[in-house]
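Late entry, pantoate complex.
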Amino acid sequence: MEVFKTIKSLQQTLSGLNPKKSLGLVPTMGALHEGHLSIIKRAKKENDYVLASIFVNPTQFDNKEDLANYPNTLKTDLEALEAMECDFVFTPSVEEIYKQKLSADVFEFNGLDLVMEGKFRSGHFNGVATIVKKLFLITNPDKAYFGEKDFQQLLIIKKMVASEKLPIEIIPCEIYREKDGLAMSSRNTRLTPEQRKAAPEIYQTLLKSKKLFEDHDLPSIKSFVKNEFVQNKELDLEYFEISDKETLTISDSILPDKKYHAFIAVFAGQVRLIDNIALN
Ligand code: PAF
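Prediction complete; structure with ligand written out below:
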């Protein structure tokens, strides 16, 4: 496994690869967990070479404290990637990526960014699209892999790739869960034992909302979810929304032939956790 800190050294190596061989990119912010490693495994199966990037992208954090507290486990991350036989790792500094201009570009996402994460984390998706576009232009992969835990991010990235006409296939990867259902996240390591014990309630509530979706209207599902969290002293509900799966437009009623998805964001103390589920 080769580790690169500079764009120049990475590009030198990538440009020496056989152009007939495929490259899969797995962008991460580090603090790797089994979910990330399952994505690396999949990327290895589907490509000749796999490149993982580890970069905590400042422009996608609306909250300075969240950025400062983001876990950094570079040494164990590199060991885990080595054990997975990942071919290349890119771990640039903020200066290397942003040079003199530490700011996000502005993209048009056709409203995908106006709800849920986009509504509650101002500027977040411009930051995500900025770094992902930079990584794509630097590495020019054939395929790039993104987890469905960040379902809205996945749609935003697909939209950016289409608008910028980048010849890269975006591969969605299923949410990887702990045995008790909690979606794996680098942020889970920051939970206290009490918060960790309470956190599976998030997925349990999504499962219940999916069941209710069979024979209840959307306002009653929403008020059911609100009530579940009123009773929970470790978890504070930030939002629960039911949206059209393609456009992410928030729905108040169910139309036939449409696919719906439920999205949730919850605070456990200072730690913000998100999850989502397909309803039909
Ligand atoms: O999902 C993440 O870890 C980040 O948002 C990403 C895609 C690596 C961009 O910084």
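The chain is about 40% helix and 20% strand. Will revisit in the morning.
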